[in-house]
Amino acid sequence: MPHRHLLFYKPYGVLTQFTDESGAGRPTLKDFIPVPEVYPAGRLDHDSEGLLLLTSDGALQARLTDPRYAHPRTYWAQVEGIAEQDALRRLAQGVTIQGYLTRPATARLLPAEPQLPPRDPPIRFRKSIPTSWIELILTEGRNRQVRRMTAAVGLPTLRLVRAAIGGLSLQGLRPGQWRDLTPDELLQLGSSAPQALLAALRPRLVGKRYW
Prior knowledge:
Blueprint: E1 5-10, E2 39-40, E3 49-55, H1 58-65, E4 73-80, H2 85-93, E5 96-97, E6 100-101, E7 106-109, E8 131-138, H3 145-152, E9 157-165, E10 168-169, E11 178-180, H4 183-191, H5 195-205
Parallel strand pairs: 3-9
Antiparallel strand pairs: 1-3, 1-11, 2-3, 4-8, 4-9, 5-6, 7-8, 9-10
Helix pairs in contact: 4-5
């Protein structure tokens, strides 16, 4: 059976799994994606939003989530306070969270608030304290890493959106929407990945077949 590969814009408050094992009845992927036997290649916390890649190809899923392959993920974080150059430098060089020094990253102040749908529910912020948006590009994905990194430099995260996975972006999707990857996107994913991942993808892309 051909594999399926999906892009999903995960809304705030949705679990990155198909069942809520706690029995609390929280929204899950099952409420949005009717495609059988696809699984997330990576996770997003329930209070984070943005791009999620799902695949039925277990080997591809393993490669995309293996930190050894350093696959880049781009996050936009609305933080409490103004992100000064010193804080951005520390984020880029690596900060210590829970006894672990994060890998070097790309960190910059976004010149304007990104064009995103309003969050439901809206963020809670203090009128007396300004906020700013920063972009972080990471090659690792530890539990709540972005939130812990920004907190470590004195910039608590108020809203967190994963904007891209490699060359794949949120463009064209609204929260709760999903679509299949195109053949060109599969090629792009392969070309931006390390050689080991490209070798795993190449047999499936011969003749630009969409599997």
